[in-house]
Amino acid sequence: xxxxxxxxxxxxxxxxxxxxxxxxxxxxxxxxxxxxxxxxxxxxxxxxxxxxxxxxxxxxxxxxxxxxxxxxxxxxxxxxxxxxxxxxxxxxxxxxxxxxxxxxxxxxxxxxxxxxxxxxxxxxxxxxxxxxxxxxxxxxxxxxxxxxxxxxxxxxxxxxxxxxxxxxxxxxxxxxxxxxxxxxxxxxxxxxxxxxxxxxxxxxxxxxxxxxxxxxxxxxxxxxxxxxxxxxxxxxxxxxxxxxxxxxxx
Amino acid sequence: xxxxxxxxxxxxxxxxxxxxxxxxxxxxxxxxxxxxxxxxxxxxxxxxxxxxxxxxxxxxxxxxxxxxxxxxxxxxxxxxxxxxxxxxxxxxxxxxxxxxxxxxxxxxxxxxxxxxxxxxxxxxxxxxxxxxxxxxxxxxxxxxxxxxxxxxxxxxxxxxxxxxxxxxxxxxxxxxxxxxxxxxxxxxxxxxxxxxxxxxxxxxxxxxxxxxxxxxxxxxxxxxxxxxxxxxxxxxxxxxxxxxxxxxxxxx
Lengths: 250, 252
Ligand code: SF4
Ligand code: SF4
Ligand code: FES
Ligand code: FES
Hints:
The complex is a heterodimer. Chain A is of the alpha+beta class. Chain A contains ten helices and seven strands. Chain B has helices at 22-44, 80-92, 94-103, 137-160, 167-188, 191-199, 208-224, 227-251, and strands at residues 50-53, 56-59. In chain B, a hairpin with a 2-residue loop joins strand 1 (50-53) and strand 2.
């Protein structure tokens, strides 16, 4: 049985540079099983063939279709129309934090540059065959669910509003740093860089990254706060500092 | 490296169509009310913090445990001897930080909502004074752990000495019990506690000790997911217990 079609309104921000942006309202035919990305595709197919929109999997797994739907950072392919009040127009904008390329597409390459600054996993220098147990990797395994949609980077006020991209790497990369720092075998000492170069102290744990993560990774509770505690161990805790002086590691 | 354009921000700029301001607004009101009430109870209305029913004395949780210092000036409330500890614990709590940075400093007021001053503001986060001091949260945790244990212990002691003999005593005991329980849950679910018991370990399977620590960590992690609830519930129950003890005094 075919679903009945009906019309909704979309407010879409179009334009290529900040001074020629406009938000236009379009009516598109949809049915109730569609997601926001379907509605955008319908618009592109029937009225606006030049509309730029990035997508790939339509299954919430490639992280390409990030945008701001009714002002909230979302994967368009995972945002069901039935979750919205369809009597009102739905507003669709590109991610605000990254430079605009065209319409709904932004240039997220800054993130890849940041990623290159992180030292890769460093395996122990030993010929011994090492086995790891599940309880050793439980924690870091959860972090690997990240699909690099960069919605958390987009919503983080340090990048979005304060524009401190030179000082702070953003939640996605704190997550990656946590997964390396908590790895049972990695031999790299990362805490100094995490504190200084990657700017952990800028995060004020206001948790918007966790709120928007489509993979529901508890970024703040399981990665950022534990990293903050580890940095305290190393740099801010006077008793630990004293004990280290008293019993230096050989 | 690519060039990033600076976007001009308008105050509270956003395209959300829900009431994004409601939650921070309610939280700011609630915390302000609580702070004013606590100040009144601890600094100004000192005489009414303890009531006696049938020789059992009920002490307001703001003043518990009671400490007597000979050199403490008479015109200063004895509640001030200890109040810095729970105050510091709450002010440096990771959850409370989230609440006050959002509700009082609008930094950010809500997710994907612009700030008051944004780009022009020289944001330093927790890298500089005063907020860098939040890194000392664990020390307040150590003290809070002892205080919470005393609250639970004095609740048990109340029952032993016969606090349940009267209706008023039963209600006061119940409220002080709830205060003890939620305070204990709030303290146990703390992020610093989670880190202390096993959060700093990388190899959980290395020894029987680390396995035990991992299991405790898992338990605390479960509590930790409800930390925000315990924060509010422990605030509310302290307030109710204090109010009820003052109410008994006023009624008799
Ligand atoms: S919790 Fe920290 S990293 Fe996450 S959005 Fe907030 S400030 Fe950014
Ligand atoms: S952590 Fe979540 S929100 Fe951030 S990039 Fe990964 S999947 Fe996206
Ligand atoms: S299209 Fe792949 S995540 Fe939406
Ligand atoms: S009390 Fe909230 S995190 Fe420690």
